[in-house]
Amino acid sequence: MPTPAYDIVIRGGTLATATDVFKADLGIQAGRITAIGLDLPTGAQEIDAKGKLVLPGGVDTHCHIEQLSGSGLMSADNFETATRSAAFGGTTSVISFAAQHRGANLASVVEDYAALARKGAIIDYAFHLMVANPDEQTVAQDLPALIRAGHRSVKVFMTYDAVQVDDGQLLDVLMAARSAGALVCVHAENHGLLKWMGERLMKRGYTAPKYHSISHPQAAEVEAFHRLIAFSELLDQPICIFHVSTAEGARVIREARGRGVKIYAETCPHYLLMTAAELDKPGIEGAKWVCSPPQRGSNDQEALWQALALGDLQILSSDHAPYRFDETGKLKYGPNPGFKQIANGMPGLEMRLPVLFDAMVSQGRLGLKKFVELTSTAPARIYDLPGKGSLAIGMDADITIWDADRKVALADNLHDNTGYNPFAGRTITGWPETVLRRGEVVVTQGTLKAQPGSGRLMLREAGEATRPTGTLSPEFDPARNFGAKLY
Ligand code: DUC
Ligand code: ZN
Ligand code: ZN
To answer: Quick check: CB of 240 below 6 Å from ligand 1?
Structure first.
């Protein structure tokens, strides 16, 4: 018997990429896609995909895994539980954070997170370098070295006492990223405004979870976007604005992109599919839905969908930030905490693709190709994840096979360690049934097949998204700034 040409053939399915939908068989060898065609020869293993959709595995580029928050709270998931839930949800690559805290050495932080991921990760992973201690050692030494070693994205917070960078520090980080070749991702909200609003609400007795949404006015997002964009434009350094939540925020991004500022931006399922009404539940129950920025109004949802359609927002991430609804997480400060004491975040890795598939494909909002683009292809391209995000010869065989007709009533039964599902109670259509990572079946028929530690670290080249536009601002252009060399 001749050796089969393929380790696996996925046969008879409908393949979809960001640009095309077509019927074909897909052949896999040594973890890569080696053939896409009709009537491929039999593989060593055959997967029947008749009547199914064969899509690139999901790429979730904003996930907090095994991370200590600014307030010292450990997220509910470790790499094993988080990436296990990702795999069940059809996601095969994640970017999480190597999160520096004040006083910590960034290079050691990256080593520590890498060790945790090596032990637990089931899918492939990369890190955003989260800088909260932008001292000389970090900005001038560690950050450039780590970027050049393949960690091509940096994350900073413009708010939160324990981790925020001030304007000068933000400029330092933007400049260091420009020199070494990295994209700078930002949580952009005005710190003073959030602090002032939060304290005013609490003092007046408005402590219930629903007031969390009032404490993050849309003006906080809008002001911070303007300031961040002004800095990005001044230095000609590309940025990615995280979790855009408001119509006005999306408009600010559109305007800036229109005049040539190099901005990428993401939003998340909870801004598209939830409103602030989720927080308005009896007692403290609404704490489960507390995240930052908060869910907004239906007008914001519409504007975000429109911004995705127009390309002003290019990425749909989960912002997986899991905290249990108990004393280890949301209720750390007792059974009835004020909204300011409630940890920000919700689990999202497992539900991101199913709820978006339901909205975009089953219900028809933007459609299948855009679903693939926003949840897999564009994030892989923007963050330069090698071999990820599409179905093409030579790419990693990261593949999710979907039953587009399967109806599922969502319940609190996710495979992470959070203990609740923010989308529980909804019924959706479309489900990721079989998931392959580099040609290995990691989930099938509701069962996990892969081992913790089988995920791989993805180191990245400096790709298109990290490159400045080359259009210098007057202040940085020696031809117009009296010859000053500022880069
Ligand atoms: N921002 C995030 O991106 N994730 C969790 C909490 C937060 O404020
Ligand atoms: Zn954030
Ligand atoms: Zn986040």
So the answer is: no
d(CA 118, CA 112): 10
The answer to whether the beta carbons of residues 349 and 320 sit under 8 Å apart is: yes
- From 60, 68, 159, 319, the mutation candidate for ligand 1 (largest count of ligand atoms within 8 A of CB) is 319
d(CA 35, CA 15): 13
- The tokens for 355 are 């709820």
Q: For 440, left (φ over 0), alpha (ψ -120 to 50), or beta? A: beta
Cβ–ligand 1 contact at 292 (below 6 Å) = yes
- How would you classify the pairing of strands 21-29 and 32-37? antiparallel
This prediction's pTM: 0.98
What is the Å distance from ligand 1's center to 407 Cα? 31
Q: Return the bridge partners of 67, or none.
A: none
Q: Are 243 and 268 in contact (CB under 8 A)?
A: yes
* Predicted confidence pLDDT, tens digits, the chain (487 residues): 778 999 999 999 999 999 999 999 999 999 999 999 999 999 999 999 999 999 999 999 999 999 998 888 999 999 999 999 999 999 999 999 999 999 999 999 999 999 999 999 999 999 999 999 999 999 999 999 999 999 999 999 999 999 999 999 999 999 999 999 999 999 999 999 999 999 999 999 999 999 999 999 999 999 999 999 999 999 999 999 999 999 999 999 999 999 999 999 999 999 999 999 999 999 999 999 999 999 999 999 999 999 999 999 999 999 999 999 999 999 999 999 999 999 999 999 999 999 999 999 999 999 999 999 999 999 999 999 999 999 999 999 999 999 999 999 999 999 999 999 999 999 999 999 999 999 999 999 999 999 999 999 999 999 999 999 999 999 999 999 999 999 9
Distance 345 CA to ligand 2 centre (A): 9
243 lines ligand 1 (CB under 6 A): yes
Contact partners, residue 111, CB within 8 Å, separation at least 6: none
The span from the CA of 387 to the CA of 381, in Å, is 10
Using CA atoms, how far residue 277 sits from 220, 260, 280, in Å, is 20, 37, 5
Ligand 1, atom nearest to 160 Cα: 8
Atom of ligand 1 lying closest to residue 159 CA: 8
Alpha carbon distance 149, 155 (integer Å): 16
Distance CA 153, CA 459 (A): 11
The CB-side HSE value for 49 (13 A sphere, CA atoms) comes to 32
In short, whether 322's Cβ falls inside 6 Å of ligand 1 is no
Distance of CA 148 to the CA centre of its chain: 22
Distance CA 487, CA 484 (A): 9
